[in-house]
Amino acid sequence: MLKEFKDFAVKGNLVDIAVGFVMGAAFNKVVASFTGGIVSPLVGLVFKSDFKGLKYVINEGVIDEAGAVTGEIAVMYGEFLTNLIDFTIVAFVMFMMIKAINKTKKQETPAPAAPKGPSQEDLLVEIRDLLAKK
Questions:
Q1: Is residue 58 within 8 Å of residue 75, measured between CB atoms?
Q2: What domains are there in the chain, each with its CATH number?
Q3: Whole-angstrom Cα distance, residue 14 to residue 8?
Q4: What's the pTM?
């Protein structure tokens, strides 16, 4: 089992996965900053509030001495929408990258045509006939 794992790791599969994971995490940070710093404020202009802070309050909370709200029950749909936008951007960029990679791959050459001549059945009939003559 250790040899199989070593073969797997040395072939490059594990390294490719690790590189993809690190690049994906870094790209996710770029997208999150783009969404949080550019998209959310622009959408916030439309809703007249911080986009990530949009919520539907089900049960009002109580403000304590420190000024924090406790006991509030709310649906945080602004954060969900921000994460949905992040996902859409990442998915679209990954789609475009895969599409570009697939374009650069060599076009598969079609399989060569079957050689001209007698079919397998014809050869078997001929062999049968030759054996029958003996």
A1: yes
A2: 2-106 (1.10.1200.120)
A3: 7
A4: 0.53
